[in-house]
């Protein structure tokens, strides 16, 4: 077989992927970029219908695109949607776990049921979705790639925000990626994570509306690049990690943070 060109290495032609939380925000842009790179994709999301034009991607990029409603925090719901996705795609070559939920309130005010839901969606949903994917890849006897969407909050405190429950969940996701990369590497399955910081999504816009003016302004002022990130600045990292361009990359965490992780951030005293 002739060596792949650099362009070919980034293509996903003939491959099939799942994206949890792929109907909006970062997840939708990952779905779009997979399709644009030639990959078939099945979206698993909580909404009855996608907010973005998921179905239009199939015609635009001449790939298979499916949408399967499910609650990733419920094992039976996730398993049923996963099985439908595999049936529609015919095979699975990888997954990106982008479904996520956050709460921002003082630690002493975070209720049991709120934190439990965050952990169920972010940590358990990612864990079980990845497990189903790995089982399917091993059943196929093929290579594969798992990409977890972790968070900058798995690395450091976000100035002005009180997200202890979220931090716990995303710290677990980042560690899960690392341990699975070691366990699954010998089986030909690569596992990596992406840690976004402030990204302009509905979730962060909602956070801006419910926090102080000073904390809201930090989304643009705290990163050394002095601006909030965009969802389509996160999604290329997912395509890279799924693709042959990352064939020797496993156990990595890609920070898409505008540099906020370097320590220029301040602390809670400012709010």
Automatic annotation (TrEMBL):
GO terms for molecular function: oxidoreductase activity, acting on NAD(P)H, oxygen as acceptor; oxidoreductase activity, acting on the CH-OH group of donors, NAD or NADP as acceptor. This is Sorbose reductase sou1. SUPFAM superfamilies: NAD(P)-binding Rossmann-fold domains. The keyword Oxidoreductase applies. Belongs to the short-chain dehydrogenases/reductases (SDR) family. Keywords: NADP, Oxidoreductase. InterPro entries: NAD(P)-bd_dom_sf (IPR036291), SDR_fam (IPR002347). The keyword NADP applies.
